[in-house]
## 1
Amino acid sequence: MNPPLAQPRRKRGAHPLPIAPTAPYAHGGGKPSRLPDHPHRRLSWTAPLSLSGLFRSPPALAPFLPEQRYVLLDLQAWKKEEIIGGLLLRVTLLVLQAIFRPNLPFNLTAIAALLRQLGDQVLREQELGRILTYATRAGQGLSVTEFAEVATAADPERGGTIAMTLAEKWLAEGLAEGRVEGRAEGLHVAIEDALQDRFGDAGLALMAQIRLITSSASLRNILRAIHLSTGIDEVRQGLEGLAS
């Protein structure tokens, strides 16, 4: 016969403390996400606040449905200093709060800087990846420069390398600036941002030629060249080399 499971001791007459389930969320109050079908886009909470509200059943079965309720916490109504707790929990809630607020890149940079407190390098990179993934897919998007600034805030020494590694991975999957329209389109968007950031209108003038290129490998090489080049002439020469 198996021994009974050990039970925590309680004082006679004492009752277990209740646990109140909570669901933090942030409604979209600003510009809509660049993902038009994102479930958080400009929406308030619409789901039932109890488990029983999720069921469709005859009235006779109502007494047998779970009635557990949860507390809904709208993070948009909170001040930043009111969000406390462990570092990873605080970072998660701050990102969720900031995702639809104005000045997303500025706010994400400040939040990412909190990750410097993590002594575990691997954990820091994982959390940074989650922040950038969520911002890219759920928010209003980040430019290439903003993407790197957020990463550098979390890790001044390796942030730039981490950002490029993540960017190249997502761009290869067609995820750039919150788009999921195919690899080439995603790379075109990233290249356009990079050209504008580095060379302004002169850089944008190259896009007509670049949009004719559909090879993901060639487009990734162009993106890397833009970041490593010392001037726009080097980028032009690289494009001429691809055309020849």
Note: Residues 29-43, 176-181 have pLDDT under 50 and may be disordered.
## 2
Amino acid sequence: MNWRRGLFRLWLVFSVLFAVGAVSFKYIKAEFDQLSFKEAMKNDILMVPVDCSLARGAEKTDYIKDINPSARNACWYQSPKFRRLYPEYADLTDDKLIGAKPYSKILGPASQKWGPSPIRAILVVAGIAIGVPRSASIGYHIGLGLCWIFQGA
């Protein structure tokens, strides 16, 4: 066995794994941050955005304007005040209210079907890190097999 070639291959594999990890670190960290934020906000009051042109009630007593820079022209209501002023949404739970029209109109549709999951993020990255080289290896071996077949040995 050629040690130099084996060590080069080992270095190559670890370099690819490091590159995949470096690229995906931000994605995995975001999942952990989102989970910790959700846990920290568990006992806080839900804030519901509404387009300010459709706002009901008085500013600073019923709602606050523009507390989120990514949602422009949004008036934010605390959940109990929102339910009182918008009775058409009063029967929705907080989780269903997030996917309802006020949220989707201001912040866009709810992007995640499931809650944040760091384990899912790690498994996705691990699948990419292992699956791509494995697919290349399978393709290589299929190519070797085809060469052997058509070689006519």
Note: The chain has two domains: 44-111, 114-153.
